Amino acid sequence: MFQILNKQKGSAARTGILTTPHGTIQTPVFMPVGTNGTVKGVKPEELVEIGAEIILGNTYHLHLRPGELLIKEKGGLQKWTNWRRPMLTDSGGFQVFSLGAGKDYTPLSNIPKIGVKISEDGVEFRSHLDGSKHFLSPEIAMQIQADLGADVIMAFDECAPGTSDKSYARQAMDRTHAWALKCKIAHEKIQKERPAEAQQMLFPIAQGVVYDDLRIESMKFMSELDLPGVAIGGLSVGESKEQMYHTLDVLQPHLPEHKPHYLMGVGTPEDILEAVDRGIDMFDCVLPTRLARHGTFWTHEGRFHIKQSGFKNSSEPLDTTCTCYTCRNYEMSYLRHIFTEGEILAMSLLSIHNLHFLLDLTAKIRAHINAGTFTTFKNDFLRNFTIPDGKNHNSDP
Amino acid sequence: MFQILNKQKGSAARTGILTTPHGTIQTPVFMPVGTNGTVKGVKPEELVEIGAEIILGNTYHLHLRPGELLIKEKGGLQKWTNWRRPMLTDSGGFQVFSLGAGKDYTPLSNIPKIGVKISEDGVEFRSHLDGSKHFLSPEIAMQIQADLGADVIMAFDECAPGTSDKSYARQAMDRTHAWALKCKIAHEKIQKERPAEAQQMLFPIAQGVVYDDLRIESMKFMSELDLPGVAIGGLSVGESKEQMYHTLDVLQPHLPEHKPHYLMGVGTPEDILEAVDRGIDMFDCVLPTRLARHGTFWTHEGRFHIKQSGFKNSSEPLDTTCTCYTCRNYEMSYLRHIFTEGEILAMSLLSIHNLHFLLDLTAKIRAHINAGTFTTFKNDFLRNFTIPDGKNHNSDP
């Protein structure tokens, strides 16, 4: 189901093809996020034109509203949302902690606060929408994701914050391992009842916070499960870029060669390049659309804000080297004007540009790996690309 | 420049073709409104697919931000906004009163309140954005609209509220007549300096509030000006549907046969049908997109709200007889879900549907007039179409 095409000499970067029931995906791949069943402000046809091959849906959100049973009845998430191509759903694990009661969740004290109750069976949490109580477990997460019907589904995990002490980090990791096994058992049972053409791939999520030995232990554990991919969770949740790159360096020799490696929640152009160099194949992040809704866009020179006064009179597109719909048809003075006026078209046009920027970047990455020129490309790109500060921007507003 | 194609027997309805520098327009026509240089939430290519042949821009808004000189420098409104087809700009007269200081403008007292100062020369008003002082006059309105560069431009008028007493209504009408003459003089001078392929058409706006004799007097005055069209202003600003239809009945015999008749700010499906029956050729209204952003949509059965609980589980499109992009690709349960989640895609998809509904309605109206079956079509349509109450809904939120 995952075929490696080429490897870059002097790097862990590689290209590959992941085959799913809804089509194939070229890796390294960036996956736009469609939290509530839509990539915010962008239509499916626009995503296709941008070059998206797979998008995400969020189990946590869709479970709370409208509920997976409605979506199942409607023929599954792809049919219902008019996105007929590959899709991935996360397990809800991350959101249970970050949205549900996450704001009160302080692993430093070793005991999560009000709102979230973790047991070996699963997690009781309160909805961020109305405070109502809910329960997610490995078994429930597998059933919800089967009902949603994505091609790639994720194991239920405990995503401990980057500030967790080692004792709690181990506890959360051990629980995540036990849950991965439970997910696998539940998943296999569920898949037997699904038709051959709708078999889902389950990826487990390795954790371990910022502790190298835990990270390695977790990656080894997940790699040895007989599952078709592995994910790295709990990075880009508050630690520095250096910390993230360090963890990826530590993990790299332990990544299972023949499975796709998915780094969850990343992200920025520079992080994608650094992670690909360290052997990562798959990425997702809300950043391109979230930044766009707030007026921020990427160019090959870095990150800019559309309200910058220098753009008031500019006849240039957002990026003179860009071929996206927005850059082909609109100049900065216009985009600045409609953004200033609060027009939703501005959010859509900037979202299209930012998504195109990352998908174009991954397309170039693939081409350069295939040509053996990835390292030069990466260095050239990063030399021209100004990063505002040394911080990790994957969850910027 | 305006050619009448067919007339419906037993009705004042007619079809025609209006030729402009950016292309031809089939009448009766509905013109989507792009206040700030964008039809809210809808891209130009989507407008073309929906069947829009001409859209509006707002002089008042574009003059305040970003300013007509920037737009002129950028090659005009059409090029700048990526809408390369016919365009119409209003004069700013309506907004000066309704937005600027309009909230304090009480013609019943015969003296407009703080914020707006009317003289024979023009109107001093305050910006609704920052309270800054501005001045618009017939001459300035002509210059701004020449800089914006639309195909059809409107004379500067005083739009007195539907509650004005007769004495004030006459005063405002007389001023509007004097201004129309000033506009014509300024316009002719400006057009001489424009190239032959960029000549603009000036339409004067007849006023008269709800007073039949004033309405007739004003329409006669405007008709006799040597200008290529006439508009009816100041209807759909608070009076009842009955009052509006009555005024149109009164005006109908006085409409200049060989010029297009534009009813400003209308509107609803039922009003368009009634007005076409009374000889109107052109319409504009913010209603389709404004209703959409608030979750309301039209079908051939009437007006509905997407959050209606009956739609929660519905696999039907918004309207089973509709061929728009939204109805072809999305069911109500999905649209209801993304609207509930506050997704901007919901606003875009409902806007596309509502605009398509009105443009499809006008296309059907034209086909039926050409076939001589307009009256039957109108009666059949209105029999199936439930109007929530007897009120005028053209400026609903």
What is the topology?
The structure is a homodimer of 397-residue chains.
Chain A: E1 2-7, E2 14-20, E3 23-27, E4 29-34, H1 44-50, E5 55-57, H2 59-64, H3 68-73, H4 77-81, E6 87-89, H5 93-100, E7 117-118, E8 123-126, E9 133-136, H6 138-148, E10 152-154, H7 166-192, E11 201-203, E12 205-206, H8 212-224, E13 230-232, H9 241-251, E14 261-263, H10 269-277, E15 282-285, H11 287-293, E16 296-299, E17 302-305, H12 325-329, H13 332-340, H14 344-371, H15 374-384
CATH architecture of chain A: Alpha-Beta Barrel
Q: What percentage of amino acids of chain A are in beta strands? A: 15-25%
| Shape estimate of chain A | globular
Based on secondary structure, the structural category of chain A is alpha/beta
Please report the distance between the alpha carbons of the first and last residues of chain A. 36 Å
What is the number of domains of chain A? 1
Percentage of residues in helical conformation of chain A: 40-55%
- Give the largest chain-chain interface (CB within 8 Å): A-B, 34 and 34 residues
Q: If you had to describe this structure to a student in words, what would you say it looks like?
A:
2 copies of one chain form a homodimer. Chain A is an alpha/beta fold and 397 residues long. The first copy, chain A, has one domain (2-292): Queuine tRNA-ribosyltransferase-like (TIM Barrel, Alpha-Beta Barrel), CATH 3.20.20. The first copy, chain A, is 41% helix and 17% strand. Chain A has 15 helices and 17 strands. Chain A has helices at residues 44-50, 59-64, 68-73, 77-81, 93-100, 138-148, 166-192, 212-224, 241-251, 269-277, 287-293, 325-329, 332-340, 344-371, 374-384; strands spanning 2-7, 14-20, 23-27, 29-34, 55-57, 87-89, 117-118, 123-126, 133-136, 152-154, 201-203, 205-206, 230-232, 261-263, 282-285, 296-299, 302-305. In chain A, the strands form 4 sheets. The first copy, chain A, has a 9-stranded parallel β-sheet. In chain A, a hairpin with a 2-residue loop joins strand 16 and strand 17 (302-305). Mean pLDDT of chain A is 93; it is low at 101-113. The interface between A and B is medium-sized, with 34 and 34 residues.
